[in-house]
Structure formats: C-alpha cells, structure tokens
Design brief:
Chains A, B: GO terms for molecular function: ADP-sugar diphosphatase activity. Chains A, B: This is ADP-ribose diphosphatase. Chains A, B: Keywords: Hydrolase. The structure is a homodimer of 183-residue chains. Chain A is of the alpha+beta class and 183 residues long. Chain A has helices at 86-98, 153-156, 165-181, and strands spanning 6-15, 20-27, 33-39, 46-51, 57-65, 70-74, 77-79, 100-112, 121-132, 144-149. Chains A and B meet through strand 1, strand 2, strand 3, strand 5 and strand 6 of A and strand 1, strand 2, strand 3, strand 5 and strand 6 of B.
C-alpha cells in the first residue's frame, strides 16, 4: 500500500443545517501539495436493507428523492440513530418504510457512496424471516412497497427508475451471498 | 407513478468552492409540506469507466480518497469537461488515470450516488479494444493500476479496500452485459 499523504490542515468552509464542507490540505508522499474539498461526515452512519421474503422476492420502495426531484425505486435505508446498532436501525427502518420486521439480520458489506469527497458509509444488511409490522416514521407520505423477484435482478437494473448505485450493488451482492449459502 | 410534489421554493443556503447547498421546500400531493436540504448539481455530469482487456480483466486504480482519508481501490472516473461527450470524457479519463485508450465504448447505465440529497449522475461506460496511451491529468501522484479478472468479481467486492457502491454496481452490470453479449 502507498504511504498516505500527510494531512496539513482541515478547515471548515461552509455549513448548513445538514451539511458541513471542509477544506483538506494534504502533502502527498512525493511532496506534492493539494487542497481538496469534502463533506464532513457526521452522525453514526447509515444502513441499507435488502429484505428477502420466503419466495426470494426483495422489498423495494418507491420514494421521492429531493436531489433528483423525482420518484425513484430503491432499497429501504436510513440513518443510524444514537444508541442504535446497525441491525436495530435496519429493523426499525424496514418497519417504518416498508411495514416489515425481520427476525434474521446479516451484515453484508460496508460501502461508500463517493469516497473522494464524502466520508459517508452505509452498511448493507440482509433481512430475512420477515413479518408484517408498521412503525410510523417521519415520511411525508406512505412509500409504495414493491416485491421484486431476485431471479429477475438483471431486468430491474435496466429500468430508468432504478438508478442508485449502492442499491444495485447491494442486490447483486445479496444474490451472490444467497447462492453461495444455498450450495 | 405517484404525483410529484410541488416545488414551492429553492433557496441557496451555503456555498463553497465546489459545493452549493440548497433548501428545497415541497408540498406533497397529500398536502404535507417538507423542507429538505440537498447539494445542487453543477457541471455536465461524470463518467465511470469499466475498461475490459482481451483476457476479460478489468482495470482498477488505487487512489487516495479525501472523503475517507485513505487509499481506495475503484474504477477510473471523472467529470465531463465542457464540450465533451460522455464517451470522449471516458476515453480521456482512462488515458489520464490508467494509461489506456479505448477504440470501443458502450454506455451501460446512468446511475445516481445518493438521490435523496444529491442531483449528481454518473454514466457507466464499458471500454474495450484498449491500447497503451498515457495523458497527463491533474493527479497529485501516479495512480496504481491493477488488472483484476472479471471472473473473480465476487472475491473483489469482499475486500475492505473496495467499497464504492457505484463501482461494485458497474462491475456486476458489466459482467452480465458481457455474458449476454457472448451468448
């Protein structure tokens, strides 16, 4: 592995309710200096849930995404609240967003979204042994819940409405995990 | 499809060199109002390149990522410059970051990174018929270039150093695309 650059200085440069922008001044091991901007990572991270039912259908939600000003088909996900483990957060988010609890949770992978300028990490958790259970969340409107057969994943990822890289990755990894487990 | 919420107001709330934060005031079709924060999308978008050589190895790069303050293994990617098509940008980035040009380019998918609070989109492009060609980019140090057999993708995604959701998604989609094409 290469020698990490030395962090010379971290300077906050802008702040809003949710976001904090920082300047990161670095000196690489070859002596070259660079100043990058990044979003500071706050909070306890987030979870993305691949809920798989007994028929190997996955639970998708259709929700409004403010960044793209459109509805999008994706996986349930959300921030880990203070004091929660990733598994507890996954179970809660699944109840709030999709109306299911899960008796069996498995951590699959910790992913990044855009590591060059964001520290955010999301833990992908497979949820099984599902049962109906609805918790009220802070959603402005009920999310549409869709069951999609994992066997038809290649069709899903071609849809224009299904675009979130982390969700595509999580589903492919889940399909592989279940195939190996079933061997 | 649900009826989109009405955008009541978009207000810039913070700005740095790279980032602009906006408040998005919405009224959902059920009358509920919400104010979200998001990063405004600027520029012409970005490309992520899956370069596949004649032996079906993909080209990975190891680069320093400021957001996570560590080296990470990922796919070549970069912003589309003004006047460039996505294919021209993909060919240029591949030359700058990995030292290869490509005679054959195919657009696979337009992905989002975090659509709830970012408008950013990245176009995944498969690059084939590779030839050695190095262009100087603005990288602070040369990137390490690694060839990885696509047949061993499931091993790669388990590595702690390979975390970027969009790159995992792009590689799985490429493997499927090449398998279908080869049938």
């Amino acid at each position: 592995m290469p020698v990490k650059p030395e962090v010379l200085k971290v300077t906050p440069t802008a702040r809003s309710r949710l976001f904090q922008v920082e300047e990161l001044k670095l000196r690489f091991s070859n002596g070259v200096e660079r100043t990058y901007e990044r979003l500071a990572s706050r909070g306890n991270g987030a979870v993305m849930i691949v809920a798989v039912d007994a028929q190997e259908h996955v639970i998708l939600i259709r929700e409004y995404a403010g960044g793209i000003e459109d509805y999008t088909l994706t996986l349930p996900k959300g921030l880990i609240d203070p004091g929660e483990t990733p598994h507890i957060a996954a179970d809660r988010e699944l109840k709030e967003e999709a109306g299911f609890g899960a008796n069996r949770l498995h951590t699959l992978k910790k992913m990044t979204a855009a590591p060059n300028y964001m520290g955010h990490r999301i833990t992908v958790i497979i949820a099984r042994d599902l049962y109906p259970c609805k918790l009220e969340g802070d959603e402005p409107e009920p999310m549409e819940v869709i069951r999609w057969p994992l066997a038809r994943l290649d069709e899903l990822v071609l849809q224009d409405e299904f675009t979130e890289g982390r969700a595509i990755a999580a589903l492919y990894m889940t399909r592989h995990f279940l195939a190996v487990e079933g061997q």
